[in-house]
Design a protein that fits this description.
The complex is a heterotrimer of chains A (258), B (280) and C (263). Chain A has 258 residues and is α/β, with parallel strands linked by helices. Helices cover 33% and strands 25% of the residues of chain A. In chain A, strand 7, helix 6 and strand 8 form a beta-alpha-beta unit. Helix content of chain B is 75%, strand content 0%. The chains are: A alpha/beta (258), B mainly alpha (280), C mainly alpha (263).
Chain lengths: 258, 280, 263
């Protein structure tokens, strides 16, 4: 299970990260000694049940939280602030309700001061990439959950980030839409390759999407339990015996704690 | 929302076959019921009035109508009904504008700065539970019974919702919105412009709406104290001259105006925040 | 959020509210003492406290000791308020569930709703006199509005799944109303209690300003007639404090009642 292709420099590196929150006088220990390196253009899935600290780890990489000990590095530089070199997609979508689809997607370039015409062109490209052509003028409350999350993905992609961070992005979708969005995620990722860190609590989703799957222990503080390599060709098939085998393996090895 | 499902719980959709079913379906139709309600309200009112249950101080509905008609054409204390209404509205609008200009920035500052909030909130909490009407005496002492004291009282009433809603609007912005704009590369200034203001805007606007209604409610209280014109003056005149018909017609105009204001404000909201989904 | 405030700024935030109240009192005292604002227009905090202590045991110059004013006001407010609850809540609940109740009551309610409580004062005096009845009526008319609205909305917000489930089990309209709609509306109803209280308390002051011989609103009016700014300010402060006090009591009662009902 060791990372064999260690020759290339890691894109993201987490060294000895732990995190606790203060709740009044109580220390709430959420993450413990996480060491992880992610290669360029790798699709890595962090798998763990609710309350395993996986979202916290993602937010540390995003720069939204500071780790209590240890550090996270992007291209060898310490991550201290949130920034547009990492694109994030939230579970609750978190679109700007007062902006149209176009307004949401063009927000990143707008903040960078890209001229209107240019940023419109950029945004249009990514709106079409996620399959929302024709909905540019719609407001988020007019869209379905799956469409909202497409806007979220386009909004993160438009900044041309080095890393995409997805925090249980399909957790609120129904099963049908979820499968469809997983396929779309792979399609988009194969069209425009990025390093992806994808957080989920769904084993099937993890096996379908990931190059590697990092399993966290099922209780706080979150620790790394095991890393699985997924050597299945894409597009993957949910009913492929090899797929099912891996799914079973992960299920069995994690069920004690999940 | 679920209202439709709840309202249609009775089997009104089935076609009535017998006369009895037709009647019972008729009595479950909301509009029929509304009509019955209004007609019986007026009838009972009329009967109570003719039988003098509340003494001679309950006029018949027709008398109220006649009084309204009379005041529309013939001036009372030199002004027709519309003039009185205009005087009240003018006071409301002036005080409302001042209240918004004072209240919204204070509320915003409280939302932005925890220090300003810690300093201002205790004083605000001290004054908040005192109803605007309680200020009447002080206002008269300070400003006399002229226009100033009336506008002062209305401002006291109208400024509170502006402050509360602006403060809460800023404070209750979803923190993930900030996470989001930071990840997109926004700096502090851009956070405020692109997230704080638009996200807080519906709450602030709601505060302004409540403030306008409050101003209209408070104008009466303000005018009870020695006004020579306005809707409060009509009501007080009716009281002093023992003309209940005049009082009730004043109340009718006040209620209609309040209703018109709330309609206007709802429309303004749809126009100003098109992204806002309907509230309930 | 991730920002961790330093211990120093936390301490400042704790001290600031006291500092603010103290400085307001100090400025208030100073502007009057230095003659910037004449004493005939504004009393100093010390004068107000002196009058407060004096009024605890003395009936003059307005006719009653402070406690009598407070109790009169509370009595009047609670009478109107209780009547508003007793009529408003059942009415709102019924309007929320039964089409007939809504159809019959709604137009009248919508007609009365926009009328400010102050507008009722002359009619209330004509019809019921300047005593308790008249004032209770004014308070009732303004307290009932939030009671009806909140109970109505509470029933309307009942999760339709529960209602459908009850129907599958063959529950009658009345049983559904009694066992499902009313309990699930309770949190909203209790939310209305505080709103109704605030409305009642405002209306009370209005009623007492116009016609009364005791009560806190009367105290304020007398302060003006006697040109005693300290009495006006005392009356205003008592109105605020008593309002807050009743609010806390009702909150306590509500918490005890609602203990069994999940939010």
């Amino acid at each position: 299970m060791e990372d064999k292709a260690g020759i290339k420099k890691p894109k993201i590196e987490c060294v000895n990260i732990s995190k606790h929150f203060m709740e009044g006088q109580e220390k709430n220990h959420v993450l413990d000694t996480i060491d992880l390196s992610v290669r360029e253009n790798e699709f890595i899935v962090i798998l763990g049940p609710g309350q395993s600290g996986k979202s916290t780890l993602l937010k540390i990489i995003a720069g939204l939280y500071k780790p209590s000990t240890g550090n996270a590095y992007l291209d060898g530089k310490e991550i201290t602030h949130p920034g547009p070199d990492r694109g994030i997609v939230f579970q609750r979508y978190t679109l700007f309700p007062w902006k149209t689809v176009m307004g949401n997607v063009e927000m990143g370039p707008k903040l960078r001061g890209v001229p209107r015409k240019e940023r419109r062109r950029l945004a249009q490209h990514y709106i079409e990439l996620v399959g929302l052509k024709g909905f540019e003028k719609a407001y988020p409350h007019q869209l379905s959950g799956g469409m909202k999350q497409r806007v979220g993905i386009a909004r993160a992609y438009v900044n041309n980030p080095k890393v995409m961070l997805l925090d249980e992005p399909f957790g609120q979708l129904d099963a049908q839409t979820r499968y469809f969005m997983e396929e779309e995620t792979v399609r988009i990722w194969e069209t425009e390759k990025r390093t992806v860190i994808f957080v989920t609590n769904n084993i099937e989703e993890a096996v379908y999407l990931g190059d590697r799957i990092v399993v966290l222990e099922g209780k706080l503080p979150g620790r790394m339990k095991k890393i699985y390599d997924v050597n299945l060709p894409r597009p993957r098939d949910y009913t492929d015996p090899a797929f099912l085998d891996l799914r079973h393996l992960i299920t069995e090895e994690t069920e004690l704690t999940l | 929302m679920s209202n439709e499902a709840l309202v249609n719980n009775s089997p009104v959709t089935e076609k009535p076959r017998t006369f009895g079913e037709f009647i019972s379906a008729l009595f479950k139709n909301v509009y029929v019921l509304y009509a019955i309600s209004i007609i019986s309200f007026l009838l009972i009112w009329d009967v109570l009035s003719v039988m003098q249950v509340l003494g001679r101080f309950l006029p018949r509905p027709v008398e109220v109508l006649y009084q309204l008609y009379d005041m529309l054409l013939n001036p009372l204390a030199g002004k027709t009904l519309m003039m009185h209404l205009w005087f009240s509205l003018r006071r409301v609008l002036i005080a409302f504008a001042i209240a918004v200009v004072i209240g919204v920035p204070i509320g915003l500052a409280m939302g932005f700065s925890p220090y300003f909030n810690a300093f201002v909130k205790p004083v605000f909490d001290l004054f908040k539970p005192m109803p605007p009407i309680a200020w009447i005496s002080l206002a008269i002492l300070w400003f006399g019974i002229g226009e100033m004291s009336k506008i002062f009282i209305i401002i006291i009433g109208a400024v509170v919702p502006c402050i509360i809603n602006s403060y809460n609007g800023i404070r209750l912005v979803d923190p993930e919105m900030y996470d989001c704009i930071r990840m997109l590369g926004g700096n502090k200034r851009q956070e405020v412009i692109e997230v704080t203001f638009p996200a807080a805007f519906p709450a602030i606007f709601a505060g302004i709406q409540i403030s306008l209604s409050m101003a209209w409610t408070t104008v009466l209280a303000a005018e009870l104290v020695g006004a020579r014109e306005g809707m409060g003056f009509i009501i007080i005149t009716g009281m002093n001259q023992s003309k209940p018909a005049m009082i009730i017609s004043g109340m009718v105009v006040i209620a209609l105006t309040a209703w018109a204001i709330s309609m206007l404000v709802t429309h303004a909201e749809r126009w100003v925040c098109p992204w806002k989904t309907k509230l309930e | 959020m991730s920002d961790i405030q330093s211990a120093g700024s936390k301490r400042i935030l704790k001290i600031l509210p006291y500092l603010s109240l103290l400085s307001v009192l100090a400025i208030w005292e100073l502007v009057v003492d230095t003659g910037l604002v004449p004493n005939t227009l504004l009393a100093t905090p010390i004068q107000v406290i002196e009058l407060f202590i004096y009024k605890l045991s003395h009936a003059d110059p307005d006719g009653s000791v402070l406690l009598v004013h407070v109790l009169t006001s509370i009595g009047e407010a609670l009478t109107g308020y209780t009547l508003a609850l007793l009529i408003g809540i059942p009415l709102g609940l019924l309007m929320g569930w039964f089409v007939v109740a809504e159809g019959l009551a709604r137009p009248i309610f919508e007609m009365i709703r926009p009328i400010p409580p102050v507008a009722w004062i002359p009619l209330a005096i004509f019809w019921f006199g300047v005593g308790l009845t008249g004032k209770a009526f004014i308070i009732w008319a303004s307290g009932i509005v939030p009671c009806v609205i909140n109970s109505f909305v509470g029933v309307r917000m009942t999760n339709p799944v529960y209602i459908r489930m009850a129907r599958t089990y063959g529950a009658s309209d009345w049983e559904i109303f009694k066992n499902i709609c009313v309990p699930s509306a309770l949190p909203m109803v209790f939310g209305g209690l505080q709103v109704a209280l605030a409305a009642s308390w405002t209306a009370l002051v209005a009623a007492e300003l116009i016609a009364a011989d005791t009560g806190l609103g009367f105290l304020i009016t007398m302060g003006r007639r006697l040109l005693m700014p300290d009495m006006i300010v005392l009356g205003m402060l008592m109105v605020g404090l008593t309002g807050v006090f009743i609010g806390i009591v009702i909150d306590r009662v509500e918490k005890r009642l609602v203990a069994g009902v999940r939010r």
